[in-house]
Amino acid sequence: MEQPHVIPVRKAVVPVAGLGTRFVPATKAVAKEMLPVVDRPAIQYVVEEVSAAGIRDVLLVTGRGKSAIEDHFDRNAELEAALEAKGDADRLAEVQRPTDLADIHAVRQGAPKGLGHAVLCGREHVGHEPFAVLLGDDLIDARNPILPTMIEVQQRLGGSVVALLEVEPSQISLYGAAAVEPVSLAGIPDGDVVSVTELVEKPSADEAPSNLAVIGRYVLSPAVFDVLERTEPGRGGEIQLTDALQTLARMPREEGGGVHGVVFRGLRYDTGDKLDYLKAVVQLAVDREDLGPEFSAWLEQFVAGRHVELSSDPAASLPAR
């Protein structure tokens, strides 16, 4: 049953207070969200996704040493003037683009108390409206957006909505896992929307209720704030958003409860660890019109040459000790 009165989703919260320990020493003095993915920092892809979904108000939940993120979305008059003086219109447009994407606000998390606490830091800014939450480790390909569908589901069914991805059972322990029931919603393909009945944070393969993993996109009811206030620290001594969503899934709809999921079937780039970050850079570079053809040709030659080099080295075929 679709709800008769809806409040539009106008704001997004983007937690960026993490220390980026998996990328040290690169992140010793540089925010992990500012690491380049081809020629844009990872955080810009996230804000571009928010903007494309029609949301103009973005709250960054930051921490110490993260001022470069705010600076990136601010004007740089000196650089703009230098590019304009050179007549470099293309680069000038690229420098100005982040500033024009959205209205950027920031609040400090203060202490690393978990994703749930980071979301709670946005309470005063968000108010009593549904809102989006996007994590910077998951980059969603602009050709396969999921946020607009999630917003539509929230507007039609109320409550909160999570993005779900089918993963190999051996990988489910890296994510929150969802137990689901099918939902039929006119205009959306069958199987793409489900009702979430249970969420388990990073379960073992034997304990997971399914192989549907929660990835870093949420559209949340403002009821989540009261729930987070009452949520005790969980795994790792942190306030887990998954625990709050589990509570919301059991709450009555008229109280802002209920959780649905949208199953994502598009392209996603995980920049959360070194290997996946490198894969993301290569995948996105190959798909670029300006870089793809030449880079792909070089990549094929490099891989072929590397294969020949390894095949000609007898030591390469010896088992590791």
UniProtKB/TrEMBL annotation:
Enzyme class: transferase
Keyword Nucleotidyltransferase included in the entry's annotation: yes
Catalytic activity: alpha-D-glucose 1-phosphate + UTP + H(+) = UDP-alpha-D-glucose + diphosphate
UniProt-listed CDD domains: UGPase_prokaryotic
Pfam family, one: NTP_transferase
Domain Nucleotidyl transferase residues, every copy: 11-282
Keyword set, alphabetical order: Nucleotidyltransferase, Transferase
EC number(s) stated in the UniProt entry for this protein: 2.7.7.9
Assigned protein family: Belongs to the UDPGP type 2 family.
Name of the protein described by the UniProt record: UTP--glucose-1-phosphate uridylyltransferase
